[in-house]
What does this fold into?
Amino acid sequence: MFKILKYSFYDLIRSRWSFVYLLFYLMLGSVLLFLNNDLSKAVITLMNVIIILVPLIGTIFGVMYYYNSKEFTELLLAQPIKRSTIFIGQYLGVALSLSLSLIIGLGIPFVLYGLFQSNEIWDFVLLLITGLFLTLIFTALAFNIALYNENRIKGFSYAILAWLFMAVIYDGLFLMSLIAFQSYPLDSFSITATMFNPIDLSRILILLKLDISALLGYTGAVFQKFFGTGFGLLLSTSALSVWVLLPVFNMYRKCRKKDF
Amino acid sequence: MKTFTLHKVLFILILFVSQFSSAKAKTVCNTCELKSLKEAIAVAHAGDTILVKKGTYKEYNIVVDKPLTIIGENFPVIDGEDQGEIIRIVSDYVTIDGLFIINVGTSYTSDHAAIRVVRSKNFLIQNVVLEKLFFGIYIEKSNHGKIYHNKIIGDAQNEYNSGNGIQLWYSKNVVVEKNIVQKVRDGIYLEFSDHILIKDNISTKNLRYGLHFMFSNDDVYTNNTFENNGAGVAVMFSKRIKMNQNTFRNNWGPAAYGLLLKEINDAEIYNNVFEENTTAIHIEGSNRVTYSGNNFTRNGYALKVHGACYANVYEKNNFAHNSFAVSYNSKINDNVFKNNYWSSYTGYDLDNDGVGDVPYRPVKLFSYIVNQTPETIILMRSLFIGIIDFSEKVSPVFTPDNLLDMSPQIKRYE
Amino acid sequence: MIKIEQLHKKFGKNQVLKGIDLDISQQGVFAVLGPNGSGKTTLIKTLLGMVIPDRGNLSVDGKSIKNNWKYRNQIDYLPQIANFPENLTVQELIAMIKDLRNRPVEDERLITLFKLEPFLNKKLSNLSGGTKQKVNLVLTLMFDSPIIILDEPTTGLDPIALLHLKAIIKAEKDKGKIILITSHIMSFVEEMADEIVFLLEGKIYFKGHIEALKLQTKASNFEQAIANLLTQDHV
It folds into this structure.
């Protein structure tokens, strides 16, 4: 697996797109910090970027890589290598190269700015961790979608739809159901609903750090427990891990049965 | 004028005290002739000084009924053994200095205090340390006094069986300065007390409020720090209060505020710092209040305005990184927002005059939604919320459409 | 060496393989032929484990290939379209396949043979179709495995490279290997193949020597024979 991972990774980190992605983050980080000079504001803007853009890029890259390397995959399939090794290796290659672009792209401007001397370092580290989780999750989802769809136009559409659903539509439905049932106790429902969307989960993880004072303004005991103790952090992180493992496991299962 | 009188009074008091102390000092110690404070007070004459040596004195219900100066040397311990009130001052011109008073009795029927001043003038309570108390320093219908540099460390667990650190009731012209109050019910509590100056105090970790005003007018509090109190600072049903240069920090919880204003008229709130409170200022039914030069940083809500509030002015404040800058529960606005700095302002300044060219609308639709359905807070900062906030910004439907800062600042006030 | 029994495969509603039985035990060049959609590629992919059969048995060297990947060590496969990771250079790709299979190779001889030296440090995305196919051939033929499967090996090759390819195939056959070829170039098949496996509608329609085919279809040349095979089929 590590060989496949290595080659996919090398292949990708030299691709134009990883470079564009890296440059984008470099620029974003630098512009945010050096034109603005406000670290807190930069972290908040970054959060918006990370919870929306990272999943999108992960999805598109994942699908694109899968379809573009189809022939190569077939070459590999004819080699004496286990199938799951090929796909998990490729998946990790994509996810890791994207993660690396993210970390380096954002890390360099922040380190240059003097992040290590500031209080925001933990906010920033948390941002990067959620960014990593989202990359792993959405690349895995993209691979799943691609594995199920031979037609690349269809695959692309489903992938974009999946992203749109998780990034916007889900929250719209969520908000509407909260308002519709506002006379009922809703804290357990809202926390559960959050668990089913990795973007929401990452958002919550960051909120726990940035907006804890506002979050603690609510009386429900469940919310109090969730936000006020380490429980929320623990639950969100475990749920995110499950979100990584499930699609990867499904990828493993599906690729063993698939015809190429 | 008033301060001047107060100073004059204090000056006379000090003269008075110093004149007599050297001449007629009574010493109390465990091996002396006078083994208790009570005995010393009984034999002392008006104007005498009683020097209490280091040691432990198990006494309570000590009544100071003549002008005396009681000075503790190296903090002698007055242990009330939970029997009730410890010192009661019923005379003018009494000074208590340097005592360490512990074990005030808790009672559900009477408010036992470590030191209670009743209907007396010109008192001075300073350098006193109070621990294991019920009420700390209780000023009752007494005027022209000073409570200076005391340390009150409570261990309150529940509101119903704990008392306040410093309480003023129907008292006027009192200075409360440089005290440290911790872990009591209300750090400093004022009821029907006017012309009080509260400065340089540190009130932290109290169960309820760090500072609490009820029906008290013309008071000033300045340069105080209020941190980690159960509910912050509450100013209620009071007029003409000046609140300047105070720090309100880390007051977290569903009913916690940096500052709670209820039925407050004609107040001034200048140059305070509000940091990381669930709600920095909660405003209910308050009119003609000026908020200027305050720093609101990383609060859940910077300003939460409830009910009818008229003719208030918010100017030259910094609103930086609050989850919600301003929240209104109605569509009507009669208050003025101008020249503030808003960290979430995204407009531009083409003419480079330091004022944004596009007005800023500080009330977000989302804050309105959260008011209606609190659980929606979990959707904060999601893209969907961003989209609906944006559409509300373009054409306000649910939030007051005249609530605008026409002159948002580009740079933060230093 | 290769034994296929009652192989069935369906893609959706499309029954592609309808019970194929094939036994290849002796050395030689076998051409798998058939019209488009007859199941050639599916058959080869099933053999490679890329397509999972619905029914039937496949064994290589006496061992079933089900849930087994190690048998692929004995197969060299040339895929149809040479489309490789774009950002790798030729050299890196060769090194990578070598690394993945971890077997002794004779890449240098083949590189010289196909005159690929000037391209070694070029990225694959910058190569012409013919050059890519040469790289493809190198990747396949550099290992010394007992079974070689070539899917349309002549695509894009110039005449000299084609000559080299033919020479290699002959040489490999002489080493005692089994070589499976699919091709649409009948002259190439006629020249190279010892036996024909003709697929039609998911079944083996003919298996045997070219001479036998000519005899059966009463055709004078091979191309004609194949054409006859197709037209007389529904009679």
User: Anything to note?
Assistant: Chain A touches chain B through 43 residues (CB under 8 Å). The first helix of chain A runs from residue 2 to 13. Residues 2-257 of chain A form one domain. Chain A has one domain: 2-257.
